[in-house]
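Why do we care about 3D structure at all? Because function follows from shape, and shape follows, mostly, from sequence. That is the central idea of this module. The next example makes it concrete: a single protein chain, its amino acid sequence, and then its structure expressed as tokens.
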Amino acid sequence: DAIVQYASSDNQVVLVTDGNNNYGKDLEEGLDFAQNIGSTVYAVTPEIESNDLSIQVKGDKTAVKGNEYRFEIIVSQAKEVPVEYTFNAYADDELIRSGTFTQSSRQRSYQIPYRFNELGAHEIKIELSTQADEADNINNNFLKSVYVVPKPKIQYITDEPDSPLSNILYNLYDTSTNSNISNLDSQKAVVIDNIPANRISESDVSILKQYVSNGGGVVVTGGERSYEYGDYLNSSIEDILPVTSTPTQWRGGRDIVLVLDISPSTEKHGTLPEILGNAIYLVQKEELRGAYMGVIAFGKEGHDVSGGLKYLGTAGNREFLEEEIRQLRPSTTSETSLHQGLEVAQEWLNTETGTLDLVVISDGGIKDSYEESLNMAKDLKEDNVNFYFVHIRSSAPSQQDESGNVYAEKLVENVEGTTNNYFKLDAGQRANIISDESIEPPLDENESTSSYQLFEFNPSHFITRNSNVKANITGYNDVTPKPGANRLVVASNGKPVVTTWRYGLGRVASITTDNGKDGGWSSQMYSGNNSQLISATVNWAIANPQPEEGAVVEAPDTWFGLPATITLTMYDEKVPELTYRGDELELAFVGKNTYEAQIFPKTIGMHYVSGYPIAVNYAIEYRDVGLNEDLPSLIIGNGGKVYSQKEARANLLTDARQNSLQSRMEPVSWKMYFILAALLLFLGEVMLRRSLEIIESRKQE
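And the structure:
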């Protein structure tokens, strides 16, 4: 907010900051604004005098009685040094986890499972202690409130109530079993298990469509009587599903990283539009819609442009990447340090599997960073990364060695053993790289054609985030995801197994393998930890497990000094009312049967609004400790520079003066000069004629 407030085309902004922004506009948004109006932002980072630890807890606010609830403890430190600490985790004052740990990284997380067996308000408390010197220990304790609700009601449509799928549903949910769809008013989700299309009437489909459109959830599992075996193709039930019952072709399983050159030479020699244009061309490429893509820019340093890899199957992600690419501008202090961009790419790809592609798009002026870039590229190749170089033809220096060999071409040949992945383009040309052939998955000679390993295709989705699937299936329903659907889990041959999408206000998931009965196609998927995939899918379809009856209160936890917003939804005709510390709260009507109120807690601890818990923790500025690791790349990527305190005293004013000289294009009107010239011509003509008349009259006399 301060950057947006003070930045203008007539000044430059100096931030003295640790770079941690926890309120208002994002730091990146503020820097983009400053760059767009021509204001340079510099940063002076303070020296860390002593280490500091902070702890926080993340997890759902709502838990289901008797079911496993997982929360995440995150420990952060200001420095990147070994530090030993102990934490104790309590649930309602009962110690549920403790231990002593050593941490060297800036951040470390711990997943803690627990079961709440009583309805209503509960409290999770974490206490951290360390023998190391700390700047402050106010952020060493954390509270999280949890509200436990009854098991959500679901309707289970099946002819096989004794399958492994059935066991999961009966254990985790309030499940009513039917052979046909019945009253859905009180149901949080409907699970349809291996039912053919002729068993689902038009009236049933109409009920389902209305139910899902209004916010309900539907999960449809496969088998030998559903999807292509149950005549789903072009049926009414297929309308609400995220898949069509036609065989799919492999369209994914790959990660693509674009490494873009934004050094000053790209602007000076006019290649920047071509570099960005080729990148946008790849983002828009139809054949890559099933892939993940990330964008890195490099000049003097590598800069994460996209925030990691983004799934190209959604229009929103493609538009985001295109917009981020279009906004790239070279920094005045940048150099062409390709190895810095490759280093960021290596961090992204070292944990990825499948087909990995790295595409450098540059003017080829990489002489100064060639050796370091070559070593980094060879390391990437050892990790099975395919290396491409798109060389935009220009007059930029440092493209060739003394013998006339092109550095970019040499780089590709030394890494790939061939120059097939080297493309030299003129202005307006686009590189037709990453062909359809490379999209096919590699065949594993040791894998039986009757057994297919499952892979998480989208590991960041709610369903797959904590579902570490390690299972094989022996069969599946061959379907094709619809446009806009999310392919979450696939078999090793690329066939989708779990696919989701939104339908109206509701959610629909297709599990296109069977229920695991009698050692069927997918018995491994329903056993052990793999069963979390099934429960996560149903939980995603349910969305909010709170029963829609009576008065339902919802509110997130908050930080000291910030208000807490409470939402009240009325499902009956009673008068809405909320109380806090014995006083009735003022409610504001915000929608149908929905009201809001705010409280301003004065103390850290647990607070209750009509029995609903809200945890208030230390002030939010104590959460993020140390220097923001993204600050240097953000500042430099937007044309600024980062200084230590000593560097700022020596160089900041000099650099600011140099950058304060700006050339501007301002319109200049020549209209007055033309008017004066015309007036002089007119007066000259009048005087000439008058003179001639006088001379003529004298001759006549």
